[in-house]
Design goal:
Layout lengths: L13 H17 L5 E5 L5 H9 L4 E3 L1 E2 L4 H11 L8 E2 L12 E7 L7 H14 E11 L1 E2 L7 H13 L6 E2 H10 L2 E9 L3 E8 L5
Bound molecules: S-adenosylmethionine.
S-adenosylmethionine binds next to helix 1.
Length: 208
């Protein structure tokens, strides 16, 4: 007998189960085989478990707010993957981040979850920890030309703003302008299921 939780008892986000395969495909396309990948706002830790199981050469550093770290630790124990690193506490608003020299920074469904000032701080932090030439992959919904891309995204935005009026789906064009301030340039805008996108930015070889 063991007291270890089985997979059915682990904290689960349904969205993660739905989007993990398409995200794996995008990561497999862009990330180097032995990449050090820093994840922001890891949530349950399911992406860390799935990606390290399917991309065995990577090292995946999950991070989250303090109160969510235990969920990720449970997934780490269950997954038992060498590349699944112990989660670190990281609020994207912090000035000093606990990891650096990332080949790739990945974040799913965080940009719409937080306020614009938090997104600005997030980009500042990313630009500091990403290696020159490194990649930033941002998965989630975005508006284009000020328009929602689906009724599902209208509903999501309303739900987000009821929860926190400062949160909500961000404009693709605003994200591009912000990224450019930090020498991050759009390399691809990948279509994902359920009207989500993965924005792929590359950090310039020179600059901060
Ligand atoms: C919608 S969830 C997405 C979780 C996970 N990435 C996923 O795709 O399932 C948004 C996550 O952002 C985290 N978060 C919110 N504010 C944050 C902040 N200031 N810094 C870091 N993470 C934050 C929350 O704790 C939450 O887990």
């Amino acid at each position: 007998m063991t007291n270890e939780p089985g997979i059915a008892e682990l904290p689960t986000a349904e969205a993660c189960v739905r989007n993990q395969r398409p995200i794996l495909d995008v990561l497999g396309k862009y990330a180097p085989d032995n990449a050090f990948i820093l994840e922001l706002g890891s949530g349950t830790g399911q992406h860390a478990a799935y990606m390290t199981a399917n991309l065995p050469g990577i090292r995946w550093q999950p991070t989250e707010l303090k109160e969510r770290l235990d969920d990720i630790r449970q997934w780490r124990k269950h997954a038992a993957q060498k590349g699944f690193l112990d989660p670190l506490e990281l609020n994207v608003e912090q000035d000093i981040w606990p990891a650096r020299d990332a080949d790739v920074v990945f974040s799913a469904n965080v940009v719409h979850f937080v306020s614009w000032p938090e997104v600005e701080k997030m980009f500042r932090g990313i630009s500091r920890v990403l290696k020159a030439g490194g990649l930033l992959l941002l998965y989630g919904p975005y508006n284009y030309d000020g328009q929602y891309t689906s009724q599902g995204n209208v509903d999501l935005d309303q739900w987000l703003r009821e929860r926190n009026p400062d949160s909500g789906i961000k404009d693709f064009e605003q994200i591009l302008l912000l990224a450019r301030q930090f020498h991050l340039y759009l390399r691809a805008d990948e279509e994902m299921p359920a009207n989500n996108r993965t924005l792929v930015f590359q950090k310039a070889e020179t600059g901060e």
